[in-house]
User: Which sequence fits this backbone?
């Protein structure tokens, strides 16, 4: 009787070990063993199932990210070689559209609006008939703050152009000579007397004096001021060499005339991205937003001085992020550990079933001990 109980305990150990292996991996690797009336327990040989066929994973790419215009996110998803249900997530939680796709079908999912200055981890959850797959990770995206967007969308006030006075020549001032009118003194006349003619001496009139003309020294004309010259070497740089449509990037330039207006434009786009004023060193800095309809590939941002006509270029790479889904596979290390544990349990159960117990010994002569 005790041998049968021991065999039952061994069988239970085997079943528990098989259930431990079958739980995290999938189907059970061994069938339950019915209790045997004999002293030894019989176990079934595990038969591994065939390896799952490789399937082409789904893929996704970001087509519209959070920007100054709005905070919505759009992701284009293409199913692999099996039908799947896809859903857009932020930080691991559902945050957008959900769609069911046939093999090879493409759909664009839109997520909820991201708040100002907020960063989110964008991903696409994928579920097939076999169960959940590894999510497609797009990456972390940040919507610019409202202050940064105001700096981009509102151009800085422009000061009116200063007019350089045209140098002129001041003619020397000269005073015209003045001639004083001659002063005439009337000649007195003496009436003739009866006693005899008398004559008076002629009266003389003082000669007029002509004052000498006063002349003033000619004024020397002022030297005309020359406009400022470019300061330092001409060049440009950016805070990030790779951008995406709708993202914000800081553009810097040097070598312009201090105080002049500098326009920042994207090659091929008529409307300037920004207009800034060069500082006292001839350097400029502008926070600009890449237009949403910018073509992917190489792009050039140009900085042009309005007065000096100096031009500096900054090379950028406009790209959309595309991250393929990670392929799910069988956890072979866990499977190997489970099989090893199952083998140890079977060996212990067999040894316990075959070992004689003290109660099973009989005394000589057939009498129990």
Assistant:
């Amino acid at each position: 009787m005790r041998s049968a109980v021991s065999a039952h305990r061994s069988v239970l150990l085997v079943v528990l070990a098989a259930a431990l292996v079958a739980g995290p991996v999938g189907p059970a690797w061994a069938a339950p063993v019915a209790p045997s009336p004999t002293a030894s327990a019989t176990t079934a040989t595990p038969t591994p199932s065939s390896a799952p066929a490789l399937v082409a994973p789904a893929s996704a790419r970001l087509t519209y990210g959070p920007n100054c215009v709005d905070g919505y996110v759009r992701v284009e998803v293409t199913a692999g070689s099996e039908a799947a249900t896809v859903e857009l997530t932020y930080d691991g939680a559902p945050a957008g559209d959900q769609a069911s796709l046939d093999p090879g079908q493409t759909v664009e999912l839109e997520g909820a609006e991201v708040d100002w200055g907020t960063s989110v981890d964008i991903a696409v959850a994928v579920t097939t008939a076999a169960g959940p797959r590894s999510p497609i990770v797009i990456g972390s995206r940040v919507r610019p703050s409202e202050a940064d967007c105001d700096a981009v969308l509102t151009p800085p006030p422009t000061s009116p152009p200063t007019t350089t006075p045209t140098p002129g020549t001041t003619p020397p001032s000269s005073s015209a000579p003045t001639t004083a009118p001659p002063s005439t003194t009337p000649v007195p006349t003496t009436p003739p007397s009866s006693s005899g003619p008398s004559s008076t001496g002629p009266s003389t009139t003082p000669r007029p004096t002509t004052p000498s003309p006063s002349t003033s020294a000619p004024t020397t004309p002022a030297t005309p001021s020359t406009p400022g010259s470019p300061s330092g070497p001409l060049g440009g740089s950016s805070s990030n060499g790779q951008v995406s449509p709708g993202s914000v990037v800081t553009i810097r330039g040097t070598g312009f005339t201090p105080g002049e207006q500098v326009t920042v434009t994207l090659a091929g786009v008529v409307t300037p991205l920004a207009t800034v004023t060069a500082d006292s060193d001839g350097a400029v800095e502008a926070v600009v937003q890449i237009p949403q309809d910018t073509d992917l590939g190489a792009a050039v941002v140009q900085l042009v001085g309005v007065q000096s006509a100096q031009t500096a270029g900054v090379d950028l790479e406009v790209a959309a992020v595309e991250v393929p889904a990670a392929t799910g596979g069988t956890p072979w290390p866990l499977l190997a550990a489970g099989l090893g544990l199952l083998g140890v349990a079977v060996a212990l159960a067999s040894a316990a079933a075959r070992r004689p117990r003290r109660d099973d010994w009989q005394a000589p002569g057939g009498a129990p001990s």
